[in-house]
């Protein structure tokens, strides 16, 4: 091993100045020796204004407090193969000042022009204008080492000051920069025969250690650590070169897991460094057969182990760092591919970041307003060397360059990149202790600042929270206010609605009470009417019993059986259909009215004596004694009304033995009027049945059948009527509920009344034709079917036969005669004057009523009129099925009928009596007498 020589006295570095470009046509001054090189006034560079400006800045005189970054330049000797290409080979033993001159005319582009400057000449192959050469002078380096410089020269000028500082307790950094194959590793590590800076530094350290042992017990200890930062894919990793441990982790400016090997002696330290160097990642490239593929960092920690507190303090944290950076590579020269190419990218990137950090530091030092860019974050190397790159620790650069023309670009790039770094200043270089204290103070300051920031942040957070709470409270308050207003509006609306609803309900309740009262009054009225009806029924029964005391018709069941023929059955069916008409109202009113009339007539009859009471009745031209005619008259009226209502009732009383008498005729008309009371029933079949019931009275061909029919229909009528009265009334009273308003009743009554008037008028107009029509019908009963329903004809014939039988046996037919007489008196009103002539002697008048033809005619006309009225009003058909669907109450009609009995209708009859004196004066007289009786009685309204 080459002994470490004492470091020579470093020559005072010339002031930094860089010559960018030589004047093109001016004679170049001869290069000055390095030792005596003086800074020249820098010439302005035309293509690098910033560097020219930097060069134009006169370097301030170095002061004790201000120290600039040391930048050394070592020019690698040209290899032998390259040396053969060189035109001029420097002669051994000659001055280095002549080498550039010799090389200037050869393949060397870079020659030292002084101890602190070099001249870079653009090779002819790269000149655009060959006639115009260009040479750049870079001056201001701390030292420029020619290719002939030895390792010791480099150590003495570059590393020895750092070691002294390290031994003095100050940390320092030496970084070797340069393109690949420029001799960085050779400079740092050297070779066994020509050791580099690291071995020489170790020797120097241990020499000092040995010197200190002699003077005093060992008080200091050193440790060595080596690691490399190499690429791994697109990332980086740290690898410890002194141990086989796993990769290390970079934490801020320290590496976790890095082994620090204590240095006990120089030999172990040198072997350790040699082992670590061998472990470093290297690879062969076209530019370097042993090219480093990683950034290698060697750190020497000095620890004071003596009891001397002062010395320990000084050495406690001194770190001497040496960084061998991988040289920048050009792909074209290296020919790297694959992983090598990735390594080249990593190496170039790291070198670029390192240069940017120094550039940023320089710019920051030039202008404090410019922030110190944090380029160090872009690579592990710069992060680890952050303190040095930010100017907090002393750093020294040694630039390794190759002077050959082929390396012009790399050399030119490095010089242009790194020459400005020599202007970086260290205003207050901190020793290790100062650095530590500064770090601690910085840490404390940082902690305080962090605490303040936290407090401020807490306050801000609290204020923000308070503001947020206030805003939330405001929003909630607004929301609640809006909700409150909405609820208030809703409450007001609902209150008003409830009030309105309450008012309406009260009104409805009032109306309901009124309706209930009206219903109660109606019920009471109906009850009263019912009571009256019951009383009338009782009285009527009494009268009937009185009347039947002498002549109670004996109707044998045999006659009914004999009349079970088809004809009588059809007629009976028609009459039954007719009698199915519910006319309770009219019936009740009529009963009531006729009851009163009967009382009056009875009184009159009684007043006239028994002879008059048994006045004969004319039937078929014969006088028939009928002492009960008056009684029968009332009874007949009642039956005629009830016959319209009672089920199975027959109207045979309307066509029985009186078929050839005037009474029969009037009976038919009366029956027609009663039927018109039921006009609203719209029972078409009723018309035909009714007519059929009348027509047989005009038939003389078959009196036997008429008689049997009369007997057949009369007694059942009388019998069933009383039986069915109460149920009918009950049902009708039930139906006559509140729902039938008085308006409807009045309207219906008016309609019926109009119909009655209309029918009466029709009857009056057509009365002269009654006779001819009845004669036609009676002459040939078979032809009657042409004008009437064929179904009515058999019944008519049967009724006629019955009438004939009655004629033969007047005693048995007396009830029928009586009935006919009564009907005639009531229904016929053509000769009131004759009635008046008889002075109210109804039996005498009734005796003279003999107009069979007219009686036979009347029913047909009446039936026609009724049929026309029915068709006109109701439009019903004659089917029995329809009759069941068209039941109506005739109580209003009956009431109106009773109301109109003493009215204008009978006045009309009064006019008619003048015209019909010749026809039926006796019957008219009877009617007139009856009318007088009716007028004398007040009409009860239902
Ligand atoms: N000053 C010098 N004197 C003699 N030989 C040198 C000198 N400098 C470099 N060399 C030789 O050049 C070769 C390359 O040197 P070195 O490996 O140190 O270059 P490098 O800059 O480290 O390259 P890389 O960056 O690729 O690692 C080595 O073989 C080395 O011995």
From TrEMBL:
Asked whether the keyword Coiled coil is assigned, the reply is: yes
GO terms under biological process: microtubule-based movement
Cite the Kinesin motor domain residue spans from the record.
68-424
Q: Name one GO cellular component term.
A: microtubule
Point to the regions of Polar residues compositional bias.
771-791
Q: Which positions does UniProt annotate for ATP binding? A: 178-185
Q: Low complexity compositional bias: what residue ranges?
A: 34-57, 697-708
The record's keywords, sorted A to Z, are:
ATP-binding, Coiled coil, Microtubule, Motor protein, Nucleotide-binding
Q: Which residues form a coiled coil?
A: 505-539
**Record-linked SMART domains:** KISc
- Stretches with biased composition (Basic and acidic residues): 908-917
Output compositional bias ranges, type Pro residues: 1-17
Enumerate the InterPro entries for this protein.
Answer: Kinesin-like_fam, Kinesin_motor_dom, Kinesin_motor_dom_sf, P-loop_NTPase
Q: Where is this region: Disordered?
A: 1-67, 91-110, 687-708, 770-791, 856-924
Which GO terms of the molecular function aspect are on file?
ATP binding; ATP hydrolysis activity; microtubule binding; microtubule motor activity
Give the family this protein belongs to, as stated in its UniProt record.
Belongs to the TRAFAC class myosin-kinesin ATPase superfamily. Kinesin family.
> What is the protein name given in its UniProt record?
Kinesin motor domain-containing protein
Specify the taxonomic lineage.
Eukaryota, Viridiplantae, Streptophyta, Embryophyta, Tracheophyta
